[in-house]
Design brief:
Length: 322
């Protein structure tokens, strides 16, 4: 090797390393993917051939503020939190799943999904991109398109306190839950708190299936039972999860009668009841859970009057009816 080549070697290594660690550029790397595969269904309301066209699921992906706001199922994007970023979940579902996205056309490739994962994990930096500001709330407009909290997020502080004094679940306990069909993940690499779902077998997840959570019941902080076939009886098992903070019951068979069991969950902050048979009578039962901060009752039998009463009882909670 020549002396010139030897002298140049450190520079080459530095450039290669920098390239390998380069952050995902949203506008260059991800926006074209969303434009091609997502925005036809998830953009601001418009009129097509004389007919109004609304974003599916009330979810818009054509603006930074809109991604963070989310749609009928809650936030589509939570920076640094894959487990709570719905837009990442749906592109990883089995292709025969009703919620797999996009439902038509070419799905995201493995490389595109990897970029999305890296972007979310690194903090979901939009760079200078704002997107369509139509319909943006005042705080997002004032913040240049993306409303960001000034200090540590409230939910991060909450989860830190929730984990205090808790030991991690044993490998045997985790294995038992997984063998029973549950998908189990740590909320953070250094956290004893767990997120659980049954996304690989939603059509087989009934009330009896929830018994697999017994071995890890003290550690479950987030539980996604969306689109499973659980009923009110299953919520008795859910009520045993003392540190449960987020519960997704969208499109299940849960009714007003089952919600009474949830009053035992003193740490429950987020509850998704989208597409269930819940009525105003069920909302009255939720009024007994003062820890609630976000409730979604979109496409249920709840009324505006019922939601108003719940908001009066839980002034700190955001209740989404439509």
């Amino acid at each position: 090797m020549s002396k010139l080549a030897i002298r140049s070697l450190p520079l080459v290594i530095t450039l290669l390393t920098a390239h390998g660690q380069a952050a995902v550029n949203f506008e260059k790397d991800l926006l074209p993917v969303l434009q091609k595969k997502c925005l036809d269904c998830h953009s601001a309301p418009t009129v097509v051939d004389g007919k109004p066209k609304k974003p599916k699921g009330e979810l818009r992906l054509d603006a930074a503020w809109a991604m963070l706001k989310g749609g009928e199922t809650g936030p589509s994007l939570v920076p640094k939190d894959l487990a709570k970023s719905y837009m990442f979940e749906v592109v990883n579902l089995p292709k025969d799943d009703d919620m797999f996205m996009p439902p038509k056309g070419d799905p995201m490739t493995a490389e595109e999904i990897k970029l999305l994962k890296e972007w979310i994990e690194s903090g979901a930096d939009f760079g200078g991109w704002k997107g369509n500001m139509e319909g943006a709330p005042a705080d997002a407009a004032a913040a240049g398109g993306v409303a960001k909290p000034a200090g540590p997020r409230e939910h991060e502080v909450f989860y830190t306190k929730l984990a205090e004094g808790l030991k991690p679940a044993t490998e045997a306990a985790l294995a038992k839950a997984r063998e029973g069909g549950a998908q189990v993940f740590q909320l953070k690499p250094d956290s004893p708190l767990l997120r659980v779902d049954f996304l690989t077998g939603v059509s087989k997840c009934d009330d009896s299936k929830l018994s697999v959570l017994t071995s890890i019941k003290d550690n479950v902080a987030q539980l996604d039972l969306g689109r499973t076939i659980i009923s009110d009886a299953g919520l008795k098992a859910v009520a045993q999860l003392s540190r449960l903070a987020s519960l997704d019951l969208r499109q299940t068979k849960v009714t007003d009668a089952g919600l009474e069991a949830l009053s035992a969950l003193k740490n429950l902050r987020t509850l998704n009841l989208f597409g269930t048979e819940i009525t105003d009578a069920g909302l009255k039962k939720l009024a007994t859970i003062p820890s609630l901060r976000q409730v979604t009752v979109f496409q249920t039998k709840a009324t505006s009057a019922g939601v108003a009463e719940l908001k009066k009882a839980l002034p700190k909670a955001q209740v989404t009816l439509k």
